[in-house]
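Hey, can you fold this one?
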Amino acid sequence: MRPIILGQVYIQLSHIPHYTTLQKFAATVSGTILERIISSFTLLLSNIRRLFIGIIDSSGFKLSNASQYYTDKVNLHKKYLKLSTGVEVLSQIVCSIKIRRAPTRHDTIDFQPIVERTSEILPLSVVVADRGYDSEDNHTFVRESLHAFSIIPARYRHVPIWRTHGKYRKEMKHGYSKILYHQRNKDETIISVIKRLFGEQITSSRLVRTQNRELSFRCIAYNMHRLTNLIIIINGFYRACLAN
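Sure. Predicted structure:
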């Protein structure tokens, strides 16, 4: 029996779908559904009652296959999608995303929507972001609305504390846990893995909607890849414990 027939029997399909079925699904599926799928991976992790750290960071994905040399030579306008992510540190699973077409306004406008969406999955304990998201409003939102702890270093380090606006920003000037703050480097690692596994160019379509879908699918594929690795690691650990 041919492999394709075996696959059809295994997943109990009455007939083989047309080869464009996945393309049509990608073009019509709701972005909200994809966001819920991304968020649901966190619920598959056992023994997590609060998200240890929701990390906020962003990175660009190019919208062209042209090389950097060609782009510079012909003076092409650089187009790219900006992906902002909220990540659970212990498992390195992407919890929520926000996609914008760059260049756009400052990344800090995506901070509160991503944090709020992540907090709807599970309560937060710590939220860490780099100084690009420095804002007293962001600190207040995390600490007073979500009852979590925020670490966002204040910009303008040369400005003395007494001239710094906001009590939480002043607290950051007094000092913060470097161990917790440097956990945000894992978000950069996750973005790097996504680009290495699936590429940093978005090439599926010229439409903004399908470009956003492609980037969402890459995040889902990354979460599946990461969750599979976690299961393999945990199973190996249990087997080693039983052997001893």
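The chain has a mean pLDDT of 82. Let me know if you want another pass with a different chain boundary.
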